[in-house]
Amino acid sequence: MALALPACRRQSVEHDPGVVTVVPTQSATWIRHFNPFLQSQARWGTVGAIYEPLLIYNSAQGKYVPWLAESYGWSSDNLTLTFELRKGVLWSDGRPFTARDVAFTFELMKRYPALDQNAIWVKLRSIETEGDHRVHVHFAEPFVPALFFIGESAIVAEHTWKDVTDPVTFRDENPVGTGPFTEIRSFKTQVYELGRNPRYWQPGKPKVQAVRVPAFPGNEQASLALLRGELDWAALFVPAIDRIFVAKDREHHGYQFAKVEGTVMLYPNHLRKPYGDVRVRKAISQAIDRQLITRIAMQGYTDPAPPTGLTDLYARYKDQKLIDEIGDFNRHDPVAAAALLDQAGLRVGPDGVRTLPDGSPWKVDVNCVAGWSDWIIAGQIIAKNLRAVGIDATLRTYDFGAYFQRQQTGDYDLSISYSTTGGPSLYTYYHRQMSTETVKPLGVAAEHNWQRFGSKEADRLLSALARTSDPKEELELARALERIFLENAPTLPLFPGPAWGEYVSTRISGFPTKENPYAALAPYKAPGYLLTLVELEPNTGTSAAHTSTGKTTGNTSTQTEGAH
Amino acid sequence: MRFLLRRLGFYLLAAWVSLTLNFLIPRLAPGDPASALQARFQGRLEPSALAAMKKVFGYTDAPLYVQYFDYVKSLLHGDFGISVAYFPARVTEVIGSGLMWTLFLAGTSVVISFVLGSALGLLAAWRRGGWLDSVAPPAFIFLGAFPYFWMAMLLLFSLGFVGGWFPVRHAYADQLTMGWNWPFVLSAIHHAVLPATSIVIASLGGWLLGMRNTMIGILAEDYITMAQAKGLSPSRVMLHYAARNALLPNITGFGMALGFVLSGSLLTEIVFSYPGQGFLLFQAVKSQDFPLMQGLFLSITVAVLAANWLVDVAYVFLDPRTRR
To answer: Is the distance from CB of A417 to CB of A265 less than 8 angstroms?
Structure first.
């Protein structure tokens, strides 16, 4: 059958010059869906390439980049956040972008809570426009951390959205946005293409003609395409990436696995004996070999988390001196762990296994999700490490529903789980770890703070943190919160999650490289990827790409520096 | 005729039972879609928004029988609800996107494998002890013993990745538009070669062996000797006397295989990134997308039942004993 086909020629990789092929996510098939409010279900490009936010947080540089807003400012009482909007921005249908559009976007979220996925309106009172290019956001009480969620919300056009009957199920198949790629050039179940917006507000940008997004059902298929050189930009877990990807073409193949995703933690249940004792928690933490976990479970693509649990997203808050002062209980030290357990009264019984102070047996179950292999490997190592210091630990895996229910209702000893970051402010992260507001009694499902730790001192600091927009004061409060976290070890941070990103610069250049990491590379992080997307440009003379790229890449890096 | 009607009645009953099971099984399975939704968002969605989303998806705490009547009612209207994994697309639309390609790929390969396997089995039995008989059955049984997805990966790596003669993914070249034009049709066939070959190689042996073994039994029957004694041409004896009877068990198998076409090529589709139904099912189960799961199971059930009914019809023509 194969031989009878006329089309059996060497399959050449088809590439239209100036088209970026990107694999930000994996799916069997694409459904045409560009509703920016339902970002996690909408197609890639919806928030970023089509609909743009007021500000973009550049996680690689730790600062806000003004986007549709030229600047922002807090009132002296921090009750009003004012955005000065960029002038001369047009929607892709030619109508001007104004303050009315911004106000309309947030009012829509208020009317439909399902669209307000970050619960912005919990703290807001109202939104008000002043002229065509100024927006005031009024808060019911000061809540500075909301800047991130408001700033990164995608803004929609009032004139196209005001007649939508049900925005929650609206698919927005022909979006009108302000972004660099607003034209749906083609949409098929296996691939779609976004063409450039000729009216884009950044002069001369975007330099590439279109973005093509093929559908891959899984990581293996997409990795194969990456290794075949068919992709320009991807977010993939590639095993042994230096050997099988980078070594193939050191000049053009690169990756960035930024350690900015939520830290994976071991949650001890404080309301169960003996995990309420800080000595026990710190001893468990010291017994764990995190180097081994990151090397085996994460292929060395991440590092052990510091005891504060802060990822690189919070690089500016990290303080090694503080950790040294209080003691790094994340360092693998089984001898110190055993001593600490002895001190806490959990002595080794005649059978070599530790018992509770009253002599009753101490069995530790480690709660984990069935099928999530990296966590399971981590769990196996943890159980082994704990057994090495005399703790009778067993890894238990459950289907996610059952696992999560145990974790939420506090029906576990130790549980491996993610932690959420929620923007560059430490507020959300520590609020969910230490605030008494988030503590629920056993048996009641908790949304966060599964370990059930609350500190009055942390409450006070958090509430002060929510009210300040002064960077110096913010840093002081963050340090104080870190201190409480270090002293109490409410949860045991294991490792930060990596944000996957790879590039191939034979056809397209301008990606953030090791030498010039001007932005995050991970293409799935919306709207952060927009910082990279607008810098991409085709290499001149695609056929001669191999000879000319060295020079082009050099040019690009200087241009990008100029743009920021 | 009465036979066919009786069968039809039976299939309707079977359809109702499977509809009901289709409703019950996902609900009795561990885990629930609401927590699966939580797993998808990994805490990035605020509880208030999550509650609102649940309402949109139609997750209710209504008693099971109320949910059941709602389910039957919407099924009768052809409404399978909104898919969770592909929100806010309707289930019918999601299934529609994959159905055609699965039918094309798995349908073609099952037919090819059935026709080729039966023909080879027929010839092998007819020239029993000949070279075809001694080589083909063991060879294809050997190949068939490999899991078909492994065969698929082998083909993909050798002919697709290393050789580069065949595309390694998708159902047609990305830059073409769907339609009845030569470039598109050729591209679709070109893309189907590797996945189809992997399915054919893996399933050929079964048909071949089944046909051959039945044939050998039938060739020993008196009426074959009788036909040969009457001086009928060998091809007439082979095709009209022996093959027609030997084919019956294979036809039953063929009906089953056709029915399972919709679900059976799951792993092949995953290996080749083929935009078919199999991967949708996998993803639906993984993300506990009840509406999509129900829609897919239903389409598979209906396909199996319909294929069986067609086999019944075919029997009426092939086997006079059923025509009473």
So the answer is: yes
Task: Flag residues of chain B having pLDDT under 50.
Answer: none
CA within 13 Å, CB half, A113: 14
A373 touches chain B (CB under 8 A): no
Better-predicted residue by pLDDT, B319 or A346:
A346
Could you tell me the two tokens for A128?
Answer: 């008000």
For the segment A230-243, the average pLDDT, to the nearest whole number, is: 92
Predicted confidence at residue B58, as pLDDT, reads 67
pLDDT over threshold 60, residue A1: no
Contacts of A225 in chain B (CB under 8 A): 168-169
DSSP for B228-241? HHTT--HHHIIIII
Q: What is the DSSP letter of A542?
A: G
Is A346:A339 a contact under the CB 8 Å cutoff? no
| A2 pLDDT above the threshold of 50 | no
Please indicate if any CB of chain A lies within 8 Å of the CB of B64.
no
The answer for A 420-439 residues in CB contact with B (under 8 A) is: 420, 422
Query: Do A216 and B175 make contact, defined as CB atoms within 8 angstroms?
Result: no
Average pLDDT for residues A161-187, to the nearest whole number? 93
Average pLDDT, chain A: 89
The pLDDT of residue A333 is above 70: yes
Give the closest of A41, A212, A422 to B87, CB-based. Answer: A41
Residues of chain A with Cβ-Cβ distance to B89 below 8 Å are: 31, 33, 171
A172-175 CB contacts, 8 Å cutoff, 24+ apart: A172/A33, A172/A34, A172/A35, A172/A36, A172/A42, A172/A46, A173/A32, A173/A33, A173/A34, A175/A34, A175/A36, A175/A46, A175/A50, A175/A51, A175/A92
Mean pLDDT of A546-562: 36
Cα(A151)–Cα(A202) distance, integer angstroms: 19
A379, A229 Cβ separation under 8 angstroms: no
- pLDDT of amino acid A404: 86
Collect all residues of chain B within an 8 Å Cβ-Cβ radius of residue A41.
86-88
Q: What pLDDT score was predicted for residue A124?
A: 93
C-alpha distance from B266 to closest chain A C-alpha (Å): 11
Question: Which residue, among B57, B95, B169, would best test binding to A if mutated, counting the most A CBs under 10 Å from its CB?
Answer: B169
What separation, in Å, do the N-terminal and C-terminal C-alpha atoms of chain B show? 8
Phi and psi at residue A460, to the nearest 5°: -65, -45
The pLDDT, as a whole number, for residue B316 is 80
Global pTM reads: 0.82
Q: Cβ B190–A5 below 8 Å, yes or no? A: yes
| Interface contact flag, A212 B174, Cβ < 8 Å | yes
Q: Considering only CB atoms, which chain B residues are within 8 Å of A47?
A: none
Closest CA in chain B for residue A21: B174
**C-alpha count within 13 angstroms, C-beta hemisphere, residue A331:** 8
A152-156, A387-391, B92-96: segment of lowest average pLDDT: B92-96
